[in-house]
Design brief:
Order of helices and strands: EEEEEHEEHEHEEHEHE
Distance between the termini: 47 Å
Number of domains: 2
CATH architecture of the largest domain: 3-Layer(aba) Sandwich
Shape: globular
Number of strands: 12
Largest sheet: 6 strands, antiparallel
Strand order of the largest sheet: 4-3-6-1-2-5
Bound molecules: flavin-adenine dinucleotide
Number of helices: 5
CATH topology of the largest domain: Rossmann fold
Radius of gyration: 18 Å
CATH class of the largest domain: Alpha Beta
């Protein structure tokens, strides 16, 4: 009898698949992008995630790549005291990882309302994939500590109707990113978003998703809220 195939049915998101690290690229002081091999027949939609299974840990990451790309790419925040992000930061090129997926329902639903994408830090990842897939006519707020954390700004400046970096700890150098708001994304929405019904897509820190959901309820009646909480 032949050897039993290691790979499992591709249409089962719970099936374990093996991927290899192809490349790692630093985005900022605290964040990096990694490129992985794409398992055969691994299909996903923009906005979905993969789950790594490593020793006793399970960690989810949103896909930056598009469903048509030959490889899988991720944008990872380096948590210095973290358990798994340092593993991804230090793994040798060619290292193998066990993943499952795709997971999640944070995908784009077109409607007559204007989409407002709100991300904290690496919460920008699903929006990169959506925009690379052709989503247009959206507003996007990227909440980060300072201007040097604004990865993917070229993409969004080109395509978004309104791209606003929301800088929590702006430095002198931050006077230059055009259109920056000094404060949280929720603060920007409260002060500057014109009254209307929107589709809010919120991704990243739980506190931001909580604040923006409250604002949507109080100030933007008829809006819908879609969320992906990272931590
Ligand atoms: C659905 C989902 C999608 C996710 N997608 C991404 C992604 O695309 N990119 C990504 O970097 N992380 C993402 N995460 C978070 C990721 O799964 C890990 O939690 C993260 O990498 C930290 O793991 P760790 O073992 O290094 O840290 P841990 O030892 O688990 O420490 C966790 C602590 O790290 C901090 N932390 C966790 N994630 C982040 C982050 N993204 N930015 C800043 N601080 C963080 C928080 O303080 C958290 O309490 C996602 C989580 C979920 C649930």
């Amino acid at each position: 009898m032949g050897k039993k195939a290691v790979s499992t049915p591709p249409d089962n998101p719970a099936a374990i698949q093996i991927v290899e690290l192809l490349q790692r690229r630093r985005l900022t002081k605290n964040a990096f992008e990694i490129e992985l091999t794409r398992p055969p027949s691994f299909e996903f939609k923009a906005g979905q995630t993969i789950r790594f299974i490593h020793e006793s840990m399970e960690r989810y990451y949103s896909l930056l790549s598009t469903p048509d790309d030959p490889t899988l790419t991720l944008c990872v925040y380096y948590v210095p005291q973290g358990s798994f992000s340092p593993v991804l930061a230090n793994a040798a090129i060619g290292a193998a990882f066990r993943i499952t997926g795709p997971h999640g329902y944070f995908t784009f639903n077109p409607s007559e309302r204007t989409p407002v994408f709100v991300a904290t830090g690496t919460g920008i990842a699903p929006f990169v994939s959506m925009v690379r897939c052709g989503v247009a006519d959206f507003i996007i707020l990227h909440e980060v500590a300072s201007g040097e954390d604004l990865y993917f700004q070229d993409l969004f400046r080109k395509i978004a109707s309104n791209y606003t970096p929301c800088l929590l700890e702006p430095s002198k150098a931050d006077l230059s990113p055009p259109g920056s708001f000094h404060g949280s994304a929720a603060g920007f929405i409260k002060k500057n978003l014109p009254p209307a019904s929107y589709d809010f897509y919120l991704c990243g820190e739980r506190e931001m998703t909580r604040e923006v959901t409250l604002l949507a309820d109080e100030h933007f009646p008829g809006s819908y809220v879609f969320k992906e909480v990272f931590f």
